[in-house]
C-alpha cells in the first residue's frame, strides 16, 4: 500500500489506470439540487413522462403478463434482443429513411450502453474520438473512462462544420494520432439544440469515408421535431460506415432502459458478444412491454402529443429569454429538449452556478460538454420537464443572477458589460459561439 496518506480508500493503488477517467458529471451533481421543490430546474434533460397516459403502460404490462409470454418476459433473453422489438425498431428507423435488416439491430440497456459498447470495441488508450464542440456529457464520460483523446470539432447554426472536420483530421494525422470514429448528434443537438443540415450530412459522410473514419450517429431526439421533420439519418445513405444509436427513452419512457444500435454486419457480431459479456442480455421485460405497446397503442399519436408539449415549452423559453435577457444570444431549436445560451465573455457559467442555486434556479454549465475545459461562457437550458409557467419563473431568476454578476463586474471595472445586441429572426445576434 502507498504511504501517500492523502486518500481514505485503502484500495486506491489497486485500481486500474482507466479508473482515473471515472468522475461524476456536472449534470449528475445537479440532480440533488434540482430535486428540491423550490428550485426551478432548467438543468436535466428529463422527458416529461407524465404526458404518457398511465393506462397505456399498465395495459401493456397486464397484457404481457396475462399472455403465454409472461414467463418469457421474466426470463433471461437473447444478447441481441427479441426479434419482435427489433422488427419494430426497423419500422421506427424507416421514418428517418433507414432501410435494412432487423438482424443488424442490437438491443441495449439504453443508448448509453450502446455508446459504451462501441467505445469498448474500438478505443485503445490514446486513440482519438472526434466530437462536436460542445458534445453530450454522457458520451464524454464514456470516452474519458476508456482513455480516449477527445478532439472537438467546431459547430455553427447548421451543425458540425465540414471544413473544421477536415482541419481536425489533418491535425491529428500530422501528429501521428489514430482516429477511430466521429461521434455526432445531428438532430436537435444535446446541448447546442442545432440540427445538422442535409448538405452537410452528405459532405461529412464523404469526408469520413475518404479518411476511413467510422461515424457514430446518436439520434435520441430525431422524432421530436416541432415544425418540419429533421433531415433523414446519415445511416440512410451509408450502411457500412455508420453505426446508428437510438432509444425509447425520449419517445416513450427512460425507465424501461431500452435502446439500440444498428451496425454494419461485422461490427454487429462483436456488439452482441460485448453485450453478452456486459449484461448477459438486455432487459427482457422492458422489451416485451414496449413491443406490446407498439403493437396496440397509437404510439405515433403519442409522439405527436410529446412534440406539441415540448414545442409549447420551447416557445415559452425563447419568449422568456427575449423578455428577460434580450442582450444575450441563444440557439432556436427545431426539436428536442435544449437551448444553448451564450454569456458575455466576462462571465463564467460554472462559477456562477452557486449563486443561481441560491436564487432557486438550476442550469447546466457549458463546461460539462467539453473535454478540454471550454464552455465557461455557455449554459445549457432544458425546457422539457418544467411547465411553461415555471420556465418563465426560472428564466427570470436566471436573469437576476446574470444581471447581478454583470452589475458587480461593472462596479469594479468601470466598463459597461453585456451591452444589448441587434436581433434577427430565430436567434439573437451575434450568433452563439458554440465552437
Fold and architecture overview:
This protein has 435 residues and is α/β, with parallel strands linked by helices. The chain has 13 helices and 14 strands. It has helices at 26-34, 54-66, 70-73, 83-94, 110-122, 137-145, 162-174, 198-211, 265-279, 284-296, 299-324, 349-358, 388-413, and strands at 40-41, 105-108, 128-133, 149-156, 159-160, 179-184, 214-218, 242-247, 259-262, 329-330, 338-342, 361-362, 364-365, 378-382. The strands form three sheets. An eight-stranded mixed sheet has the order 2-9-8-7-6-3-4-5, with helices on both faces. A four-stranded antiparallel sheet has the order 10-11-14-13. Strands 1-12 form a two-stranded parallel ribbon. Strand 6 (179-184), helix 8 and strand 7 (214-218) form a beta-alpha-beta unit. Helix 5 (110-122) packs parallel to helix 6 (137-145) and helix 7 (162-174) runs parallel beside helix 8. The relative contact order is 0.16. The model is unreliable at 419-435 (pLDDT under 50).
Keywords:
alpha/beta; eight-stranded mixed β-sheet; four-stranded antiparallel β-sheet
Topology order in helix (H) and strand (E) letters: HEHHHEHEHEEHEHEEEHHHEEHEEEH
What structural class do helix, strand and pairing data support? Answer: alpha/beta
Q: How many E-type strands?
A: 14
How can the largest sheet be summarized?
8 strands, mixed
Count of alpha and pi helical runs: 13
